[in-house]
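task queued by scheduler; priority normal; single chain, no ligands, no partner chains; default sampling; output format set to structure tokens
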Amino acid sequence: MRVSRLKLLDPDLVPTPLRERLPHSVEIAELTLNPERRRRVVLKSLMSMWGKLSNPVLTSPAERGAIVRNTLDALGGVFIKLGQLLALRNDLFPTEFCLALSDLHDRATAFPPGVARRYLEEAFGRPLESVFSEFSPVPVAAASIGQCHIARLRQGGHWVAVKLQRPDAPSMFWRDLDLFQSLLGPLSLLPSSELFNWEDALWELQDIVKEELDYRYEAAALATFRKKLRKHQNIYVPQVFTEWCRPNVIVLEYIPGVFMSELLHVKETDPEKVLRWQRDNNVDLEEVGRTLLQSLYRQMFEEHLFHGDLHPGNIVLLKDSQVCLIDFGSVGRLDIDFLDSFHGYMKALAERDFETAILNMLSTSANLPNVGIDSLQAELLNAFRTWHRKTLVPDLPHHEKSVQALGDYMQPVLQRYRMSMNWSFLRMNRAFGTLDIAIQKLLPTLDHPSEMKRYQKGARKRARKKAWNVRPSVLAMLHSGAILRHNEEASLALTHASNLRRVEQLGRLRFKSSLTKGEFLILSTMRVVQVSAVALGLGLLAFWLAWQGPLPLDLFAGASESPAGSQWGLPRFAWWEGLLLLALCGKAFLSANRVVTRLHETVT
């Protein structure tokens, strides 16, 4: 990379500080690599959490969520990611529980400066002084996967942020994943476990860990977003210095702006100070909020990938209402089939066509209920209309009428019908939810359907402009008037196609629901077979033990020492007959389990 060609942030866009910069206080501790101790700590913490959750006194979902959050927060690593995935499940958990889990923050002690220097020099293959003219040995932030230092490149003199992975992170993360995988068996025995999609959660965790443990993924995402978001008004993405990026190191442009989290905090405590800062830096917070929301819509529906964690700590404010997005470790990617349904869902919301929105949402569902689809649609329609009525009241708090709030209104219905949503749908919902933390402060009177319409209008304008640029025959069509007739015919054809698609969609949902009913009957039968096989096996074992001699209770009671089986009149069988019967029970259990697994793979 040639430094002269780099397009870095314009220094004129760097805002004045909102408050005095305080030294960062990050606790430093020695690295500890003790796998067996880590395993004991994890198991002990999870058992303690289970004991607390079993307390009948606890009735509040918020209290239960706080217990889970505190446990996972203390464990760190993969368990932070697991908590963040569980926070997505507002289709299964109450809103208060999910909100408690959404407060999870990945914090950890930093490793010593000497260790950081040694690992950086090993990664670069040269002394640190030959790469950086200045390097802050104390990190400005630390998490369970790595820590961040501020430095200045010797070549070009640019200030950069250097993210260095913890040396023990790969072994710890994969070990924790193996431990979580070993817990899937017991978790699958819990009531309603099939709704949690634990196998899918494991795949999600494995993908997250694989990408976050190799910083080259984040470097590639930065380069892609920097190229795509250049067209987004007032959005900036830092430059990544690829020549210094390694699997465990990423070097990117340092942005000296004001974090959104800092601004929201000061806005609560000293609003006058924020107003003065806005005037000094020409920042309109309402414009900033709309810029972020419109950019997220464009990322999803036009770029087909989006920043998955737009919480206030990942948004940096610049002058002239411009914003910089940072931390691209969590990136959502969308396949075309799902995107088509979700785009139809959002478009229907913008047009307040809630029946079509419900059809599009259900078409992405991981499983449909075991009862008629019509009653489900009717209840969901009532939830959508409740949300819509609240969006029309400007004075209501934002959290009651946001996109996230719509999920809250649907959650009791989904729980009642034992439904779970597609993971892609949940990830996109989380993206809106994390951005809502800032939006509800920047745009408290926002009407989401109107904002979606604003996006749809802009998207059509961009599509027309793109078509105009690539089709030079448009002028000839305009002169002949053919384009007007073509638009009218296209509009009628589109309406007709939409109606046909809606009918077809409803037919597919009903067919899928009928498959789900059949699956439910077969699954219920297989569950009975499994339980019967286990019960029969335990009974055979008890018979065998009874014939081997007196039971301990008989001895304490002073009974005769003849076998309990003869006293109780139990049937007697040879040892090989017992083994054969146990083998048949095991075979029945495994066969039923195989049918259940194949049904999940084929039907759902």
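post-processing summary
- The radius of gyration is 30 Å.
- The chain is about 60% helix and 5% strand.
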